[in-house]
Amino acid sequence: MTARPTHLAAAAAARLAGAGVPSARVDAEILLAEALGIDRGRIPVADDASVAQQAAYEALVARRAAREPLQHILGRAYFGPLTLAVGPGVFVPRPETELLAVWAARQVGRGSDRTRPARSAPGPGIVDLCAGSGALGLYLAATVPDARVVLVERDPAALGYLVRNVAAATLAGTVTVLAADVRDPGLPGRLTELLGTVDLVVSNPPYVPEGADLDREAAADPALALFSGADGLDLIRELARRGAAAGRRGAVAVEHDDANGAGAAGLLTAAGFAGVEQHRDLTGRPRYVTGRMDA
Ligand SMILES: C[S@@+](CC[C@H](N)C(=O)[O-])C[C@H]1O[C@@H](n2cnc3c(N)ncnc32)[C@H](O)[C@@H]1O
Known about the structure:
Helix content is 40%, strand content 16%. It is elongated. Helix 1 packs across helix 2, helix 2 (24-36) runs antiparallel to helix 3 (51-65) and helix 8 packs across helix 10 (234-246). By secondary structure, it is of the alpha/beta class. The protein has 11 helices and 9 strands. The strands form 2 sheets. It has a 7-stranded mixed β-sheet, sandwiched between helices. A two-stranded antiparallel ribbon has the order 1-2. The model has no long low-confidence stretch (mean pLDDT 93). The protein binds S-adenosylmethionine. The site of S-adenosylmethionine has 23 residues, from helix 6, strand 4 and helix 9.
């Protein structure tokens, strides 16, 4: 027997809410659109769902009710203009990171205060440390004309998604993937070999304090992508020290735990960055710090 899509979505939303899924209604509609192969906005005017479509929808809803992340079920995540392949083994990009991406694009993109290079000069050299699926670096490579972006990631599973996303992206610049540990003392040399100069370093590193409570969706992200010492600042400490070398004469932007705005800013200042500023996300929480090297 066929069923009205709006009725299916309402029943699924109630089921997902009962399972503790945040934004149950939105997720129910996104999964229904997926099962029916239509845009979410067309659900109210869609034809009735066939028995096969209802079975497909039931399978998707059951996975979400078991708290599998929506993006794992879909196999994709949206980040600005990008659609990124994601799944088990790679961190799911978060909307709050888009604010850092927008800030970063302004530093080196059109309309920035940066003196534009002569036409024949190379475009800005940008490094994304801890690149994951490529959200930050690919955002910049897609939106900043002539950008030369190096994406650094050490986890083989994440690198698999990253390489796929690089191949699928429409770029305004060029991209190089470097399989490396950002704590490698030789990394700054490899970056300047690749880029000549580094104008901008961006990073959304692991920053969750060990032992912190996570919701079930976040717990599906790899531990390597999440945790960074007792206070969540271990890797940012390293990045501040080593980024001070890699980011000579350039800007830096680093995302952090919302409890660590002052801590992350203090680390950048202590490493010698100038003009260190704290930035909040759309919920008003401290979310990323920026600074620059003038040397
Ligand atoms: C929070 S995720 C962020 C991913 C991506 N930048 C984003 O915003 O979606 C952190 C990433 O850093 C990687 N990572 C952790 N420690 C690293 C290290 N020492 N060197 C290189 N990558 C590292 C993890 O594998 C993970 O992909």
